[in-house]
Design goal:
The complex is a heterodimer of chains A (977) and B (193). Chain A is mostly helical and 977 residues long. Chain A folds into seven domains: 4-51; 77-164, Phosphorylase Kinase, domain 1 (2-Layer Sandwich); 169-365, Transferase(Phosphotransferase), domain 1, CATH 1.10.510.10; 373-508, no CATH class; 588-666, Alpha Horseshoe (Serine Threonine Protein Phosphatase 5, Tetratricopeptide repeat); 670-744, Tetratricopeptide repeat domain (Serine Threonine Protein Phosphatase 5, Tetratricopeptide repeat), CATH 1.25.40; 745-975, Tetratricopeptide repeat domain (Serine Threonine Protein Phosphatase 5, Tetratricopeptide repeat). A six-stranded antiparallel beta sheet of chain A has the order 1-2-3-4-6-5, with helices on one face. Chain A has a three-stranded antiparallel beta sheet with strand order 7-8-9. In chain A, helix 36 runs parallel beside helix 38 (800-815), helix 40 (842-857) runs antiparallel to helix 41 (861-875) and helix 45 (924-938) runs parallel beside helix 47. Chain B has 193 residues and is mostly helical. Chain B folds into two domains: 1-106, no CATH class; 126-193, Winged helix-like DNA-binding domain superfamily/Winged helix DNA-binding domain (Arc Repressor Mutant, subunit A). In chain B, helix 1 (13-22) crosses helix 2 (26-49), helix 4 crosses helix 6 and helix 5 (125-145) crosses helix 8. The longest helix of chain B is centred in the middle third of the chain and has 32 residues, at 78-109. Chain B is globular and about 45 Å long. The termini of chain B are far apart. Classes of the chains: A mainly alpha (977), B mainly alpha (193). At the A-B interface, helix 1, helix 3, helix 4, strand 3 and helix 10 of A face helix 2, helix 3, helix 4, helix 5 and helix 6 of B.
Chain lengths: 977, 193
């Protein structure tokens, strides 16, 4: 070792030697060390070391050591997390460590990606948030989204999430590797949009969209990874978001201004990031140069500076980009505009939805003008509304639904009325009168559709005092708009005012007066008052002005609908047929198709689905040829066919047609429109029938979300949708959820329509039915009684609805073993049905059958036999599934009397019905089979008889709470002990 | 990048400690080291957990975060404090790593095995801690020879500071730091052979 003086010497010689070329050093060293071999040796070593070695040696060594400090807390390959074993780090994620893993228990072969958050939960609430968030993400099921599969906490309490492992190449790399052209890149991008849109509809925001999070598999299918994971991890480790500053530099390129500024992140933030991704995808460069910039610069660039137009960016790059000029031309205009609209600094100036962005790309791709206005009426309505939106602050969804309502109403008027010039004048006035709606009325808040229309109507009242005829026509038109957006009471109110105004103008006998009456009839029907609606139409038909063939055919068409609604099938058919004949004479194919559509609807109501399909297809073919492309009428027909196919059990076909209709309606009306919601509601039922429960629930939730946007929190259609959602929960055996949504629906109807209204009591009634089906008879009884009382009071003593309530109440009594209590209600129901539906009607027949059952339970065989026989006569040739009860009932009675020959065909018939409809018939199958078995035994067909008896027994045992089953079970056991 | 108010040192404890320590209060110096040590630990843990998987933890980044945390913009003594802090941060880093590497070595020799290692070749942790202890030992020997060389090396290796920063901390010319580092590096390299 060198002494202190040597230390200085050592350094001096070292530095001097370093300045000398290596070749000449040894001479220099020999001289400088002056025979001190130890010194020379040491210097030689030092000089050698100085020239060699890894310059990052210490950095690496210290870095690794620092890492190892925490490695003891850190998951490493081989560790187990729940059922998963970590295989190797992937390190591709934005945050948290990511591992490739596999199920350690071998339950699944598939490899997964696991993300770990190091920090544990700081509170039970955080744990709960993490869990909830995880569930939301786990529900994302889309072919272009990597699924979140599982999650939990490791042994040290560290939260983790398990995701589908995607083997793929990041989007940007993929596009370069495959030298994709602009069109292919845009197509790929649109697929990504569909995934993001799907998640947005479920209110999930990705928050970290960037090429690295979009992986393209070998099959070319893009998959978004890490959907919503940023937020999920933040819920687990809120402190982490505080350190974002340190990390931000990593993904700033795609971060929106609101993300930079720490403002709320919404779907609009994803739209921004998508814009940046598209920018980079098409130009090969990010819109901003952020690397190496100071944070304050970065913030300013993202939040203030306008990005260079994509085409300009390409043109500037010049030689760097092959074929730069052509590419720049390709981007100039539409694509520039689309990208920059997505990237606007203010979230509300971007595209309102990812769908809108994708739609604009589609338009561009297919050569349509971007954001083009397809027709003048739509254009005018849209323009008028956009102006008014600014002035009075109508919400976007409301504006959209109003715009389409105007278009629909005006379009119908155009096609349906001969006096086009006049119609045009009315519409123009209408549009004008809304344009000047007083902005001060809104006082800065968002007006509802209803308020907008109300203001318009008030203005009409004020300004058209001197022209009562015109005023009436415009009020009626507003009434139509109200109706088309589902505000029925307002609609009725306005058309009634129109009729008054018409009378005041002395125009009660005029074509316009007939139009008023048609509108009143329509709204009455919509509100469930078919009887008054029919009366209204009859009155209108009697007027001389109703003779004009087009108007008459239209009246008859509406007449057909009203009668169908009232269950007057023959009348309905006849009205439709007259309408069809007139319309064929007129030669107006659109109107012919409309009537055919109505006739198909009638067949649907009569459960003749093949007939529905025949007529519906005719209507569809005409409409398809007539309108071509996307058209509301074509979509309507598609949906009708879908419903028929679904009812025929062709579920796949139903779903396919329904999807087609939905797609078309979305293209026409946009996402937020009641028609789209209704279509979704139907789709939900189709999914339910196909037992695709999750999709059914998703469709319901989407549908409800749209309704809420369009109508506000409470609306009849929302109540209906909630009921339907309840039906799905019922099938899933989610009793609690079912009751929850159904009671919401009931309460909503009570508030909307009032206590005792048609709608409120319908809810009460279905609640009673639900309780009944759960064998909660006492509760069912109270609801059924309440329904009946309210309906008697509000609907009149002989309303159809009273009959239905009475039969429900009677069924409950019968099921509880209180047949004597049931009989008076059945008599009441029978009176009503006989009067309204006639003697020969399945509902009448059903009431008679229940009377038979009650008398049978009470031991009055004569009366029972009598009612069963009447019931069977009343069914006639129609034997719906519920008709089994008459056949079994009468068959049993005849069997008891020993009239085997008469009993056998009846019981065989019941057996057949039950076999065909096992689900609808329920315990009836046990009853039918057991009675048939006993009959066979009596006839000496021992084997066959015993087989039937024993097969029926479990059914009967299950349902022995029902009096009929208890009786039959006793006989069954006696027959084969 | 500016430290946000939530993570700076609002009470000024560290500033006071720095001042006391620069006046020769060895107790204050110890407390300061302890304070920074804890913070380094926390920051390193957090950095490990977030997007660092597969990367080597940057000592520079760690130490810089600590500095950020304690540097208060309006502090009149900011410049002087910063020098002190840089020095202390590098020392704390060294302590932390050495402590841990020693603990690791002990555990490896004596501690009970908690788990049967599944993939022993992945246990690349031990060599790095041994390497670190060797560096530390060499650095201690260098301290015996030339204290300034050792300080330069320490600031460089454990603080990740640049030549200019080190020159500022040590109050010497950058040229001196360059020369010292050149020599110290060769010397350490030679020791570690």
């Amino acid at each position: 070792m060198a002494s202190p003086s040597n230390w200085t010497k050592l350094q001096d010689i070292f530095h001097q030697a370093l300045a000398i070329p290596p070749d000449s050093r040894s001479t220099f060293l020999a001289e400088a060390c002056n025979g001190d071999d130890a010194l020379r040796q040491q210097l030689e070593g030092l000089l050698q070391s100085a020239g060699s070695g890894d310059s990052d040696f210490y950095q690496t060594a210290v870095g690794q050591a620092a890492e190892s400090v925490f490695a003891k807390d850190q998951a490493v390959p081989g560790d187990r997390l729940g059922p998963y074993q970590l295989i190797r780090p992937l390190g591709q994620g934005g945050m948290g460590s990511v591992f490739l893993a596999a199920r350690a228990d071998g339950a699944f072969e598939k490899e997964v990606a696991i993300k770990l958050v190091r920090a544990g939960f700081d509170s039970p609430a955080a744990r709960e948030r993490f869990r909830t968030e995880r569930q939301i993400l786990a529900a994302l099921d889309h072919p272009n989204i990597a699924r979140l599969l599982d999650g939990g906490e490791g042994s040290r309490g560290e939260p983790y999430v398990v995701m589908e492992y995607i083997e793929g190449v990041p989007l940007d790399v993929y596009c370069k590797q495959n030298t994709l052209g602009v069109a292919e890149r845009v197509d790929l991008f649109r697929r990504i949009c569909s995934a993001v849109s799907y998640a947005h509809r479920r209110l999930v925001v990705h928050r970290d969209i960037k090429p690295a999070n979009i992986l393209i598999g070998a099959d070319g299918v893009p998959k978004l990874v890490d959907f919503g994971i940023a937020k999920l991890l933040d819920t687990a480790d809120p402190a982490a978001s505080l350190t974002r500053a340190g990390e931000r530099a990593m993904t700033l390129d795609y971060a929106s201004p609101e993300q930079i500024l720490g403002q709320p992140i919404t779907t609009a933030s994803d739209i921004y990031s998508l814009g940046v991704v598209l920018y980079e995808l098409l130009t090969g460069k990010p819109p901003y140069r952020l690397h190496g910039a100071r944070p304050s610069e970065v913030e300013r660039t993202i939040c203030v500076d306008d990005p260079v137009r994509p085409s300009t960016s390409v043109a500037r790059a010049g030689a760097e980009v092959p074929d730069a000029n052509r590419l720049a031309r390709r981007l100039r205009g539409d694509l520039d505009n689309i990208i920059l609209k997505a990237m606007r600094k203010e979230p509300d100036r971007r595209y309102a939805s990812v769908d809108e962005l994708a739609e604009d790309l589609r338009r561009h791709r297919e050569g349509y003008p971007v954001l083009a206005q397809p027709d003048t009426w739509q254009y005018r309505a849209g323009k008028f509304l956009s102006r008014n939106r600014a002035a009075v602050g109508i919400g976007v969804a409301v504006a959209a639904s109003l715009a389409f309502a105007f278009v629909a109403v005006i379009r119908e008027r155009n096609t349906a009325q001969a006096e086009r010039a006049k119609a045009e004048q009315v519409s123009k006035f209408l549009v004008e009168s809304f344009r000047v709606v007083d902005p001060s009325e809104s006082r800065g808040r968002t007006l509802t559709a209803r308020e907008v229309l109300q203001q318009g109507a008030e203005r009409v009242d004020r300004e058209l005092q001197s022209q009562p005829g015109m005023r009436a026509t415009i009020l009626r038109t507003i009434s139509e708009v109200y109706a088309s957006i589902g505000l029925y009471p307002d609609s009725q109110n306005l058309v009634e005012r129109a009729i008054q105004a018409r009378a005041a103008a002395g125009e009660s006998e005029s074509p316009e007066a007939v139009e008023d009456e048609i509108q009143l009839g329509r709204i009455l029907l919509t509100r469930g008052n078919a009887k008054n609606s029919i009366a209204q139409y009859k009155k209108a038909l009697a007027k001389p002005d109703a003779k004009a063939p087009e108007r008459r055919s239209r009246l008859l068409y509406h007449m057909g609908m009203a009668n169908a609604d009232a269950g007057a099938w023959e009348e309905s058919k006849s009205a439709y047929e007259q309408s069809l004949a007139l319309r064929r004479q007129l030669g107006d194919q659109a109107l012919v198709a409309q009537t055919l559509f109505g006739m198909a609807d009638l067949q649907f109501r009569r459960s003749d689905y093949t007939g529905t399909l025949n007529l519906g297809t005719q209507a569809y073919e005409i409409r398809r040829q007539l309108f071509q492309g996307n058209h509301p009428a074509v979509a309507e027909s598609l949906q009708q066919m879908a419903m028929a196919q679904d009812a025929l059990g062709k579920l796949e076909e139903g779903l396919r047609l329904g999807q087609e209709a939905l797609k078309m309606r979305r293209a026409i009306f946009g996402e937020n429109h009641a028609v789209v919601a209704m279509n979704l509601n139907d789709m939900a039922s189709f999914y339910l029938h196909a037992k695709r429960f999750q999709e059914s629930i998703d469709a319901h939730l989407q549908s409800i979300a749209i309704y809420k946007k369009v109508f506000g929190e409470k609306h009849p259609l929302i109540a209906t949708a909630l009921d339907n959602l309840g039906a799905t929960y019922y099938e899933m055996r989610e009793t609690k959820l079912e009751e929850q949504v159904k009671s919401q629906a009931m309460e909503m109807r009570r508030e909307l329509f009032g206590e005792g209204s048609m709608e409120h009591t319908a809810s009460l009634s279905s609640w009673a039915v639900m309780l009944f089906s759960r064998s909660r008879f006492n509760e069912a009884l109270s609801y059924a009684t309440r329904t009946l009382e309210l309906r008697r009071k509000f609907h009149g003593p002989d309303a159809h609805t009273v009959g239905v309530a009475a039969i429900n109440l009677a069924s409950t009594y019968e099921r509880m073993g209180r047949s004597a209590d049931a009989i008076p209600f059945l008599q009441e129901a029978l009176g009503i049905f006989r009067k309204r539906l006639g003697d020969k009607h399945p509902t009448t027949a059903r009431t008679m059958a229940l009377l038979g059952t009650c008398y049978s339970n009470l031991g009055n065989r004569t009366k029972a036999e009598e009612w069963y026989r009447q019931s069977i006569t009343s069914y006639g040739n129609e034997t719906p599934s519920f008709s089994w009860t008459s056949f079994v009932g009468l068959g049993e009675l005849l069997l008891a009397k020993g009239d085997l020959a008469a009993a056998e065909p009846l019981l065989e018939k019941a057996h057949e019905i039950a076999k065909k409809n096992p689900k609808q018939v329920g315990f009836g199958r046990g009853l039918a089979d057991s009675a048939l078995g006993r009959l066979k035994l009596r006839k000496g067909q021992k084997q066959e008889g015993l087989a039937l008896i024993l097969a029926a027994r479990p059914d009967l045992e299950r349902a022995k709470g029902a009096p009929r089953c208890a009786t039959e079970l006793a006989l069954n056991r006696k027959a084969a002990p | 990048m500016e430290p946000d108010s939530s993570s700076s040192d609002p009470t000024g404890t560290v500033t006071k400690l720095i001042r006391a320590s620069s006046l020769g209060d060895s107790d204050a110096r110890e407390r300061l080291i302890a304070e920074i040590y804890a913070d380094l630990h926390r920051i390193a843990a957090r950095m490990m957990s977030r997007e660092r998987a597969g990367h080597t933890l940057q000592a520079t980044a760690l130490v810089n975060e600590v500095l950020l945390k304690f540097l208060i913009k309006d502090d009149p003594f900011a410049a002087e404090n910063k020098k002190q802090l840089m020095s202390i941060a590098a020392i704390s880093m060294r302590h932390m790593l050495v402590d841990h590497a020693r603990a690791k070595g002990r555990a490896k020799r004596g501690g009970p095995a908690e788990q049967i290692p599944i993939q022993t070749e992945l246990d690349g942790v031990a060599p790095s801690s041994e390497k670190l202890l060797l560096i530390n030992d060499a650095l201690r020997r260098l301290e015996q020879k030339g204290e300034r060389h050792a300080r330069v090396a320490e600031l460089r290796i454990f603080g990740g500071f640049t030549t200019e920063e080190i020159a500022e901390v040590l109050n010497v010319a950058t040229r001196t730091v360059e020369r010292d580092w050149l020599f110290a590096r060769a010397w350490l390299q030679n020791e570690l052979k």
